[in-house]
């Protein structure tokens, strides 16, 4: 009897041990290393597969088999993509998905992975370096016209097209691998007006932000809504507020927290609404909302004076720009900025279309701004694009205090940030640059518009337009 009792105790202990042993370590803590099986699979992938960039992977979906048909693409070659996890479902604000971006800092692109698992943050934790073996997986959209390029394990088709479906558990284990590396994700610093569709999936930070005035006393989630609640964020940009939507899931653990009333920085993942109609921010955690400053007040335009301006209304259509005090210079290629008119509006444009030059780089430099006696000095302009096919076809803005009025390349030029048109903007849609603060400069300041393109590469032969340049000060 004693022996039987002893055996029961031993067997009970063995069962208990077996149950505990069957729980994966990553159910409770983030592993710094993986088991032999996952390490072996990753090493085999790196040894036999070919890495492709996220941009290349997106292009596969956008161009094959037929651009615009919304059909998911089956990957049939032994290729893989690498990224760093930018989203986390630890608080329940993401569900059975995570984004990976191409770099832990200064990222340029991200892709979503959908999988039939919850609490993925334990395995694919924020900042984790992840490799996805793409052979026999699909690249497409989770919902038609959502516009978020996604990696999935299968497809389903309805009257609207073919979309990707989640990776199954076996597919996840055999195709999605972690390295031992977890990087610090440095948020990409942007303004609300700078965020566009190219930033979907990226972890970004916006400074000088706050929730809209009418949301004081509200919580992240509206209990009268079923799935998601959008709350308006605002930021003082010049003479007005720019706004953006923060979307919170009904399953978020912070859903009932009060919205902070102060101003500060917010770091979140750029995402799209369910139907793809708009861009939103989605929090990983409210720890990334750091609103500790006084609320902001937009500048009052009545406090400012226009000290210089050019509306290009005297432009002579299709001639090289020749305005007094402006410098029009070709660094590479033979073409320079042109005077243009359309429907009674004058502006200046630089296009490389049919230039015949492999590289075109053109500068347009404003007349000098005498900073003597000026405070709170801002530059403002409007810019548009058309036929822009690549982010490498760039418009850049620079400031110089040692330009002599003629030797452009001999001057020291400092880049400044502005809200500029991109592929996400409609052709010929003029975008306000926002206020570019040049108050810290002294002496005579020059502003330069620099475009880089090509007359032989059709992906780089777009055009940029500038109008309504002005300098404001008080």
Strand content: 35-45%
Number of strands: 32
CATH architecture field of the largest domain: Sandwich
Low-confidence region ranges: 1-31
- Total domain units: 3
Termini Cα gap: 97 Å
Average pLDDT for all residues: 88
Q: Helix proportion of residues, in percent? A: 10-25%
Q: Sheet with the most strands?
A: 9 strands, mixed
Structural class: mainly beta
CATH C-level class of the largest domain: Mainly Beta
Based on Cα principal axes, name the global outline: globular
SS field, number of helical segments? 4
- Might you state the CATH topology name of the largest domain? Jelly Rolls
Protein name: DUF5689 domain-containing protein
Organism: Xanthomarina gelatinilytica
Domain DUF5689: 50-289
InterPro entries: DUF5689 (IPR043744)
């Amino acid at each position: 009897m004693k022996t039987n009792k002893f055996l029961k105790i031993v067997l009970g202990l063995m069962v208990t041990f077996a149950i505990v042993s069957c729980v994966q370590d990553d159910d409770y803590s983030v592993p710094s290393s993986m088991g032999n099986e996952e390490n072996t699979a990753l090493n085999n992938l790196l040894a036999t597969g070919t890495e492709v960039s996220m941009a290349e992977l997106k292009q596969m979906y956008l161009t094959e088999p037929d651009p615009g048909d919304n059909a998911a693409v089956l990957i049939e070659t032994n290729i893989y993509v690498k990224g760093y996890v930018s989203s986390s479902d630890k608080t329940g604000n993401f569900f059975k998905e995570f984004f990976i971006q191409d770099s832990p800092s200064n990222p340029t692109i991200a892709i979503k992975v959908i999988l039939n698992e919850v609490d993925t943050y334990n395995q694919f934790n924020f900042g984790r370096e992840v490799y996805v073996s793409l052979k026999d997986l699909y690249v497409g959209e989770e919902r038609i016209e959502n516009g978020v390029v996604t990696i999935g394990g299968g497809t389903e088709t309805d009257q609207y097209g073919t979309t990707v479906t989640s990776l199954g558990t076996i597919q996840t284990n055999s195709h999605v691998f972690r390295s031992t590396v977890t990087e610090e994700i440095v948020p990409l610093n942007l303004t609300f007006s700078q965020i566009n569709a190219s930033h979907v999936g990226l972890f970004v930070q916006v400074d000088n932000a706050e929730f809209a005035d009418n949301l004081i006393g509200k919580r992240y989630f509206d209990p009268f809504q079923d799935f998601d609640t959008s709350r308006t964020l605002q930021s003082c940009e010049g003479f007005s507020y720019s706004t953006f939507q923060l979307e919170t899931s009904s399953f978020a653990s912070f859903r009932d927290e009060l919205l902070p009333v102060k101003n500060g920085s917010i770091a979140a993942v750029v995402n799209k609404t369910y139907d793809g109609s708009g861009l939103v921010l989605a929090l990983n955690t409210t720890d990334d909302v750091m609103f500790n400053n006084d609320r902001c007040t937009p500048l009052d335009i009545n406090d400012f004076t226009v000290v210089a301006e050019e509306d290009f209304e005297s432009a002579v259509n299709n001639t090289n720009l020749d305005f007094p005090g402006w410098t029009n210079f070709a660094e590479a290629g033979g073409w320079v900025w042109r005077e243009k008119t359309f429907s009674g509006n004058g502006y200046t444009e630089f296009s490389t279309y049919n230039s015949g030059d492999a590289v075109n780089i053109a500068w347009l430099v404003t007349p000098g701004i005498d900073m003597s006696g000026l405070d709170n000095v801002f530059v403002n302009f409007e810019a548009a694009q058309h036929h822009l096919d690549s982010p490498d076809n760039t418009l850049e803005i620079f400031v110089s205090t040692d330009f002599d009025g003629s030797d452009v390349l001999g001057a020291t030029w400092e880049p400044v940030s502005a809200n500029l048109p991109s592929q996400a903007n409609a052709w010929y849609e003029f975008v306000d640059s926002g206020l570019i603060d040049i108050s810290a400069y002294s002496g005579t300041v020059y502003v330069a518009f620099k475009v880089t393109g090509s007359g032989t590469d059709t992906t780089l032969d777009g055009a940029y337009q500038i109008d309504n340049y002005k300098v404001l000060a008080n």
